[in-house]
Amino acid sequence: MRHLLGTDDMTHAEAIQILDTAETMAATQSRTIKKLPVLRGRTVATTFFEDSTRTRLSFEAAAKRLSADVISFSAKGSSLSKGESLKDTAQTIVAMGAEALIVRHSASGAPHRLAHCGWIDVPILNGGDGTHQHPTQALLDSFTLRRHLHTGQDKAAPEGSDLAGAHVVVVGDILHSRVARSNVDLLSLLGAKVTLVAPPTLLPVGMEDWPCEVSYTLDDVLASKPEAVMMLRVQRERMSGAGGGFFPSPEEYSRQYGLNAERLSVLGDDAVLMHPGPMNRGLEISADAADSAHSVVLEQVANGVSVRMAALYLLLAHGEEISA
């Protein structure tokens, strides 16, 4: 694996390798001293052209726990305001010694461009590009689901296991969501059945090519008692006004597609509730649902560090022993 750009071109073996490696990484995080020396002397750059809290901090924590040095680039206050191009920015960061770039960009395809254009020759990890892909988010979601599916709790899943037989429901703003696209690709690759639930206005064209089912009625899908429900943030920043014409009002959206305690009670006792964050409490999810015993949102955040450690290790460590 040279780059980590998306889940759409990932093989089953590659996905399992990352998830199994993440389990090894997670086991090391119970130690008093959590740092591993496998990337000592290596330099990683978080190159974020778009705002982020969870992804940036998670990647930085992952790199530092592998003993890498971290260069942090943010578009705000940078030479982008002076007209500097993506090419020049990336070449400048690599010239400073960065040996891998973690890239988040508002333009779909920007990480792929950096990986294949020949401007730079370092591994590229996609931290989210436009409405296209967010592979490490999908991987941490599958990591979390795999643990609960096989152990019934947040404990290590068996090596080599996947998500065969699980039914995962993804609800909300599919149209603007790179998380939805990455998850549909990866979950189906790992053997899960995926159902998307959204108003027709928040579904992209070409859905017939996606390996999933589509429904417009949340209550009907919840009645099938899926193993997991993933609520997506309504991305109001990509809309104009409260709903931007995509739905009549926030109140109507919440009534039709929001997850509350009543809807949560329909699920089985072992069903898990997921959200990639940040959450719009009171819109796509109620506070009592977000804070319920079904919620694994904070587990997702914690697991994200282990998954990103695994990705960095596989791209940069060149077989260095994890237990060293």
From TrEMBL:
Carbamoyl phosphate binds at residues 54-55, 104, 134, 137, 277-278. Keywords: Pyrimidine biosynthesis, Transferase. The keyword Transferase applies. Gene3D superfamilies: Aspartate/ornithine carbamoyltransferase. Pathway: Pyrimidine metabolism; UMP biosynthesis via de novo pathway; (S)-dihydroorotate from bicarbonate: step 2/3. Belongs to the aspartate/ornithine carbamoyltransferase superfamily. ATCase family. Catalyzes the condensation of carbamoyl phosphate and aspartate to form carbamoyl aspartate and inorganic phosphate, the committed step in the de novo pyrimidine nucleotide biosynthesis pathway. This is Aspartate carbamoyltransferase. It comes from Peptidiphaga gingivicola.
